[in-house]
Amino acid sequence: MLSFAVRHIGANAGIVITASHNPPEYNGYKAYWNDGGQLVPEIAHRVIDKVNDIKEFSSIKTMDENEALEKGLLNIIGKEIDDIYIEKVKSLSIRDDIDKDIKIVYTPLHGTG
């Protein structure tokens, strides 16, 4: 979903907090670039270099969540993006009748789904 959202809203990047296929206590984050793909090694190394340049956490510029939202620097995606994504997927269907009477069971398996 984040890959779609990054491209749809024209974000410079996106971050998802996830434990991937592991239990939640192993949460970390995955970073996506403006093309919707996970960071490629060249860009990831530049990000890691910037993080490694930080000598003290107090030197990191911070901003209140509400201020970041007001300035358009933070966008927490929700149901509206889900709905747009679902409509986009439906528009790609080659047969309108293909989803009739279909039953699906789904589990994200700690984020891998």
TrEMBL record:
Q: Which intervals hold domain Alpha-D-phosphohexomutase alpha/beta/alpha?
A: 1-56
Q: Which GO molecular function annotations are given, in alphabetical order?
A: magnesium ion binding; phosphopentomutase activity
Supply the source organism for this entry: Methanosarcina mazei
One Pfam match, given by its short name, reads PGM_PMM_I
Q: Name one GO biological process term.
A: carbohydrate metabolic process
Q: What is this protein identified as?
A: Alpha-D-phosphohexomutase alpha/beta/alpha domain-containing protein
Q: Which family does it belong to?
A: Belongs to the phosphohexose mutase family.
Keyword Protease among record annotations = no
Q: Which InterPro entries match?
A: A-D-PHexomutase_a/b/a-I, A-D-PHexomutase_a/b/a-I/II/III, A-D-PHexomutase_CS, Alpha-D-phosphohexomutase_SF
Q: Which UniProt keywords apply?
A: Isomerase, Magnesium, Metal-binding
Q: Which SUPFAM superfamilies match?
A: Phosphoglucomutase, first 3 domains (SSF53738)
